[in-house]
Structures are given as C-alpha cells and as structure tokens.
Write a structure and sequence with these properties.
The N and C termini lie far apart (49 Å). This protein is globular. The protein has a single domain, classed as Bira Bifunctional Protein, Domain 2 (BirA Bifunctional Protein, domain 2), CATH 3.30.930.10. It has 278 residues and is of the alpha/beta class. It has eleven helices and twelve strands. α1 crosses α10 and α4 packs across α9. It catalyses: octanoyl-[ACP] + L-lysyl-[protein] = N(6)-octanoyl-L-lysyl-[protein] + holo-[ACP] + H(+). Pathway: Protein modification; protein lipoylation via endogenous pathway; protein N(6)-(lipoyl)lysine from octanoyl-[acyl-carrier-protein]. Keywords: Acyltransferase, Ligase, Transferase. Belongs to the octanoyltransferase LipM family.
Length: 278
C-alpha cells in the first residue's frame, strides 16, 4: 500500500512572533482543506522564552532577566509551561483530528505523533522510550505541576533517555485540527533557564534546579560526540517518516502565504495584548 504524503517545511530560524503565526496559519489552512497534514522544523532568532497559553506573566516570569539575556518572548497558543528555545530543534505537527491514524484522546494522539520523535532519537543512536506515570503521586503531579519550567513537569508518554526527559511537547485542538509542537534539546544553558522564572525564595529555586538535573537532559549530554543541528534534522525527518509511516515532501511557502503569516505575526503574536494578557 502506498504511504500517505505529508508536507514538510523547514522554516529555519525565525522571530518568535513569526514562529507562532506560522503554526497557527498551518492549522487554519489545514482546517480549510488547503494543505495536507504538515510537519515543520524551525529555530528561533533571537533565542526565546515561550510561555504556555494559560501562564500568568507577572506571577511566573522574570521579565528583567528575559531582557538581560536579550531573549525574545512570546505566548504560545498551546498550554504547558515556560520553554527556553535556544540550542534545539523545534518541531510542529499539523493533522486533522479525524485523520484515520489519530486516536480521539489527547494523550493517545500525543503518543502516535511522538512516535516520530522516538524514532528520531533512535536514528541518533539513543535508546529513547515512552515513560508512563505509574504511581498515584506521579499522576497527581500531572494535575498540579509545581514548577513554571516545562521540562520539570512529567506528562503522559514522556520521551525519556536513561530515565530523563529529552523532549517537551504541547498540544492544542482548534477547528478540528491537532497542532502539536515541541522542543528537542541539543544543548542547554541551565543557568540562563533558571534565571527566567520567579520563585518564592532562593532555596526553592535551588531545589527545583537540582530536581531538574535528575529529570531532564539535552542530547549532547548523552552522546560521546556533539550532534549538530543538521544531523538532528536528518534523524528526525527520517524518524517522522518511519514513526508515522508517511512520506515527507519538502515545501516552500509562497509569497502570498508568507505575507499572510507576517501580518498575523505582527497583529497578534508580536502584540503586548496577546503576550501579556493574563
């Protein structure tokens, strides 16, 4: 049987507002039947702190630190917590909720989509697997996460290598379409990451930071030699093809599509009204 063909876009390093606008535009175009299911790879210029749709900036984020490090800042249309996008490969998957391969529940659809990431890690020679919370305490943590930092939080079907989280993802469903996007860390500046959030006191900050070391890890901490961004792209491209049993066809946005995304970026995702609304 012939494999289904999906679209693939590598949009390179873009502004925070453009990145979120393009994900939203792809969701919209797919809901209107204008484009097939799509997988996108991207990066961030400048490095950026993205926050979840429901996060309260004033309560959780140290905006002075964001400015000090000259980081971009944007609110995602998806939930979850703060993510520092720096030395990583970011991906997004846009596919209809009614697609025959997509389960109805969020967690099961997350598992199916994340199979592509799992295979990508394996192409890099890493023994990745899905961790499922087993104890009641772990399940309770899902409902009441203690930290504003995304990679500190457990979730269903977490991708782990050697017991530590290697990718953080978030999902939203709008207009009958699933948008899942996430970060695959190549390297991590832990000092910078932990300076971006507000804590009740230094003791709590240090405790969370120590916990984080046991829970999350970047790819290049696990490999004998440094994995480059281009090697990661190649591995996860093949990973998505294998994991989702699809063929990816590279695509470049038209001038008309680019103009639409740029306008959406400027009007919505670059606005204080969107980013600081909570």
């Amino acid at each position: 049987m012939e494999k289904e063909r999906w679209r693939f876009i590598d949009s390179g390093d873009c502004s925070p507002a453009f990145n979120m606008a393009l994900d939203e535009a792809l969701l919209e175009w797919h809901s209107e039947g204008k484009i097939p299911p799509t997988i996108r790879f991207y990066g961030w210029n400048p490095p950026t702190l993205s926050i979840g749709y429901f996060q309260k900036v004033e309560k959780e984020i140290d905006m002075e630190a964001v400015k000090k490090y000259s980081l971009g800042f944007v609110r995602r249309p998806t939930g979850g917590r703060g993510v520092l996008h720096d030395q990583e490969l970011t991906y997004s998957v846009i596919v209809s909720e009614s697609h025959p391969a997509m389960p109805q529940t969020v967690t099961e659809a997350y598992r199916v989509i994340s199979q592509g990431i799992l295979e990508g890690f394996r192409f890099l020679g890493l023994d990745a697997y899905f961790a499922v919370p087993k104890t009641e305490e772990e399940k309770a943590d899902l409902k009441n996460p203690r930290s504003a930092v995304c990679f500190d939080a457990p979730s269903w079907y977490e991708l782990v290598v050697e017991g530590r989280k290697v990718a953080g993802s978030a999902q939203t469903r709008q207009k009958g379409v699933i948008l899942q996007h996430g970060s695959i860390l190549l390297d991590l500046d832990e000092e910078m990451l932990f300076s971006l959030f507000k804590y009740p006191n230094e003791r709590v900050k240090e405790r969370l930071r120590q916990n984080f070391k046991h829970k999350a890890v970047a790819i290049n901490e696990l490999t004998e030699r440094k994995i480059t961004l281009s090697e990661a792209k190649e591995a996860f491209f093949k990973g998505f093809e294998k994991g989702l049993e699809i063929v990816l066809e590279p695509y470049t946005l038209s001038a008309e599509e680019m103009a639409y995304v740029n306008e959406l970026a400027e009007k919505k995702y670059a606005s204080d009204e969107w980013n600081f609304k909570r």
